UniProtKB/TrEMBL annotation:
UniProt protein name: Energy-coupling factor transporter transmembrane protein EcfT
Protein's organism: Anaerocolumna cellulosilytica
Matches recorded under HAMAP family: EcfT
UniProt membrane topology term: Multi-pass membrane protein
Name of the encoding gene: cbiQ
Major subcellular location class: membrane
Gene Ontology CC terms: plasma membrane
Family indicated by similarity: Belongs to the energy-coupling factor EcfT family.
Length: 268
């Protein structure tokens, strides 16, 4: 299960998506997520699916690697589908005791499941094709206007970058601790829910200790290098828009206009 967590990981490849400016990918990801919840028809969902799989093809990231991340949120997907399926009022289709399935609930649960899957795949694709440093620089440049109202833009970007960097490190640390505990006879698989929760204590305690130790080491290293935030700092690789970035923005605007058109015309 730990190995199935792919969020925060970077997949190196020589693709058009990897070469794009991180600001374009951030704007594109946010726009795509918004479009998933604006679209309210199967035709619109089909269009968003075509766009998503076209981008996956351009990224050259293996589809199996991307889909592997869905295993960690399977229970959330299952709960969301069940909640919408059984608790949405409307025209009744099936009734088994107190369990009731309506036509509206069926359609809503299908759409919500697809939206969540596409949301996870789309947002994961951004981290697969963008290094943490690029993501930090792109986020900081996008939020730069907020500095006028005293928002600590650099600090926020740095915290998000560190958090993304720590995800794969902590997952690797968790895997090591789990294997060490299993070698000592720990059982994380058998038993009921309460027993499994109790069995995680020998895993969580050393994991938290390791996380706090790494955070303290990082803070001391930054202080030793006289790190004082982004004021007056320059970039080793300044972000500059290229022709492909401009074309990407035009494509994003076209997609947004098409989504708005579908919403207004209520097609599908």
């Amino acid at each position: 299960m730990i190995r199935d967590i792919t969020i925060g990981q970077y997949y190196p490849a020589d693709s058009l998506l990897h070469k794009l400016d991180p600001r374009v990918k951030l704007v594109g990801t946010i726009l795509y997520i918004i479009s998933l919840f604006v679209i309210d028809s199967y035709y619109g969902i089909a269009v968003s699916a075509v766009v998503l799989f076209a981008i996956i093809k351009l990224s050259k990231v293996p589809l199996k690697f991307i889909i592997r991340g869905l295993k960690t949120v399977f229970m959330l997907l299952l709960f969301t589908v069940a909640f919408n399926l059984f608790f949405t009022p409307g025209n009744e289709l099936v009734r088994l005791g107190f369990i009731r399935i309506t036509e509206e609930g069926l359609h809503l649960s299908i759409k919500m499941a697809i939206r969540l899957v596409f949301l996870i795949l789309g947002s994961s694709l951004m981290t697969f094709t963008t290094t943490p440093n690029q993501l930090t620089d792109g986020l900081e440049r996008l939020m730069h206007p907020l500095r006028k109202i005293k928002v600590p833009v650099h600090e926020i970007s740095m915290m998000m970058s560190i958090a993304l960097r720590f995800i794969p490190i902590l997952m690797e640390e968790t895997d090591k601790i789990m294997k060490a505990q299993m070698a000592r006879g720990a059982d994380f698989e058998s038993g009921g829910l309460i027993k499994r929760a109790k069995s995680l204590i020998p895993l969580l305690v050393p994991l938290f200790v390791s996380a706090f130790r790494r955070a303290n080491d990082l803070a001391m290293a930054m202080e030793a290098r006289c790190y004082q935030g982004g004021e007056g700092r320059t970039k080793m690789k300044p972000l500059k828009y290229t022709t492909r970035d401009i074309l990407s923005y035009i494509t994003l605007c076209s997609y947004a206009a098409f989504v708005i058109f579908l919403k207004m015309m209520k097609i599908g």
